[in-house]
């Protein structure tokens, strides 16, 4: 088989890139090692920046997001028993975020790809990129007991943190930067109405908590937990009790509890791999960087990577110029590092670390108190949360 771009990974970055390329008449094939159902069974991000929403519209798969997504103009911070609303809309000259689950984004992109004739190969084993140092790269994979080869012009490594793409360049000058946090997030999904119409990020001496949602009838909650904690240590009742302990009383009283339909623990890390381009192979999304989900940036950084890479490939095939693909890594990393900083700052401000102690708790509360009273500080938080410009 031959195509112009092979995309390794059928998560949001692979599917979004694939659809933009298809719409531009650039031939591409998406490969994934698991099934579509497996991908759609993963519960992940919930907050989309306007840039992500615009790319979803540009791809042609944005209709259901506008029908079912929840536009949010602000969110609340709780600390020292207080609630403070960050007015995203007012502080950023009218910007907002969209609450719409990554699972739905992925489903919309999968459905649109199928409807527009995109070629996707699932349960492809041992996918491997080859000869991307030259002008004739190719990808091999195994399926139905046979080894297959796809010759191409470019390979987009959209295969996430555990994928093969970054591993394939480990000895080609890759530089990694990482911080692993000494705690995780225990998250649940429950078919109960959310405690508030907006998200609540809670700083508490017992640990961080987050009240989010997937719709007006389906809630997504998280509590910070120990790194070695286990899901089966937490009954639903134990989760609800701990969540309520970490919220101000008036919010805690309004929490509607119910059975969990999903319960999992996610580790938290900050991670960046540089550069994001190796000849004809590009690293995109989680394949190149990870952020702690505190700032809701992971999925949204994948979107800006896709935007930069799509611009580069469109220019290469349209104007026969390499300029934009040559600039991909530097442009993407400039935005990645600013989102890494914001996510690191928000994680340090909202979570209980082993070394936080009583003084550290007071420092966090003082920072949040300053934020609540300073328009300048709130505006800085707001412009990072809605997403810095591409
Ligand atoms: P993905 O990891 O989504 O997709 C990669 C795809 O590549 C997968 O389908 C995988 O099967 C495939 N793949 C991997 N190796 C392969 C190989 N060798 N061959 C072929 N295919 C291969 N972000 C937020 O903003 N908010 C959150 O709350 C949040 N929660 C998260 C919870 C968890 C547990 C995780 C892991 C991530 C979370 N994220 C969150 C971040 C997440 O949303 C990512 O940013 C987003 O999935 C990035 O999308 P992709 O880059 O497409 O990578
Ligand atoms: C979610 O709804 O899963 C979510 C929302 C905001 C975050 C992290 C996760 O910062």
Summarize the structure.
The chain is of the alpha+beta class and about 400 residues long. The chain has helices at about 10-25, 35-40, 50-60, 65-70, 90, 100-115, 165, 235-245, 250, 300-320, 325-350, 355-375, 375-385, and strands at about 5-10, 30, 45-50, 70, 75-80, 80-85, 95-100, 120, 125-130, 140-145, 145-150, 155, 175-190, 200, 210-215, 220-225, 260-275, 275-280, 280-285, 290.
Q: What fraction, in percent, of the residue positions are helical?
A: 25-40%
CATH topology of the largest domain: FAD/NAD(P)-binding domain
Uncertain segments of ≥5 residues (pLDDT<50)? none
Strands, count? 20
The overall pLDDT, averaged over residues, is 97
Give me the CATH superfamily of the largest domain: FAD/NAD(P)-binding domain
Please report the distance between the alpha carbons of the first and last residues. Answer: 35 Å
Query: Quick one: CATH class of the largest domain?
Result: Alpha Beta
Q: Classify the secondary structure makeup into a structural class.
A: alpha+beta
* Main sheet specs: 8 strands, mixed
Rg over CA atoms, rounded to whole Å, is 21 Å
Described by the principal axes of the CA atoms, the overall outline is globular
Assess the beta-strand content as a share of residues: 25-35%
Main attributes?
D-Amino Acid Oxidase, Chain A, domain 2; binds arabino-flavin-adenine dinucleotide; 390 residues; alpha+beta; eight-stranded mixed beta sheet; FAD/NAD(P)-binding domain; six-stranded mixed beta sheet
């Amino acid at each position: 088989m031959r195509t112009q771009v092979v995309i390794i990974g059928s998560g949001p970055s692979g599917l979004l890139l694939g659809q933009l390329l298809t719409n531009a008449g650039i031939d591409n094939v998406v490969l994934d090692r698991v099934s579509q159902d497996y991908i759609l069974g993963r519960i992940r991000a919930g907050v989309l920046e306007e840039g992500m929403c615009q790319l979803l519209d540009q791809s042609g798969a944005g209709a259901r997001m506008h029908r079912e997504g929840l536009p949010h103009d602000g969110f609340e911070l709780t600390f020292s028993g207080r609630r403070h609303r960050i007015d995203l809309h007012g502080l950023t000259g009218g910007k907002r975020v969209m609450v719409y689950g990554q699972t739905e984004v992925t489903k919309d992109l999968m459905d649109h790809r199928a409807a527009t004739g995109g070629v996707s190969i699932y349960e492809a084993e041992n996918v491997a990129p080859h000869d991307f140092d030259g002008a004739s790269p190719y990808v091999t994979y195994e399926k139905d007991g046979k080894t297959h080869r796809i010759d191409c012009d470019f390979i987009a490594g959209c295969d996430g943190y555990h994928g093969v793409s970054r591993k394939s360049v480990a000895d080609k000058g890759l530089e990694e930067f990482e911080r692993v946090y000494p705690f995780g997030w225990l998250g649940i999904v429950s078919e109960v109405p959310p405690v508030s119409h907006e998200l609540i990020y809670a700083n508490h001496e017992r640990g961080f908590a987050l009240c989010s949602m997937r719709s007006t009838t389906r809630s997504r909650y998280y509590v910070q937990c120990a790194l070695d904690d286990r899901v089966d240590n937490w009954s639903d009742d134990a989760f609800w009790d701990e969540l309520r302990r970490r919220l101000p009383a008036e919010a805690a009283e309004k929490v509607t509890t119910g059975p969990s339909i999903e319960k999992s623990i996610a580790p938290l890390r900050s991670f960046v791999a540089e550069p994001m381009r190796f000849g004809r192979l590009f690293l995109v999304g989680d394949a190149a960087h990870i952020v702690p989900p505190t700032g809701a940036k992971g999925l949204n950084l994948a979107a800006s990577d896709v935007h930069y890479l799509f611009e580069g490939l469109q220019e290469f095939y349209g104007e026969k110029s390499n300029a934009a693909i040559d600039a991909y890594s530097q442009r993407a990393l400039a935005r990645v590092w600013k989102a890494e900083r914001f996510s690191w700052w928000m994680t340090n401000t909202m979570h209980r670390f082993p070394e936080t102690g009583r003084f550290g708790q007071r420092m966090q509360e003082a920072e949040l108190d300053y934020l609540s009273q300073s328009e300048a500080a709130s505006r800085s938080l707001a412009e990072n949360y809605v997403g810095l410009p591409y």
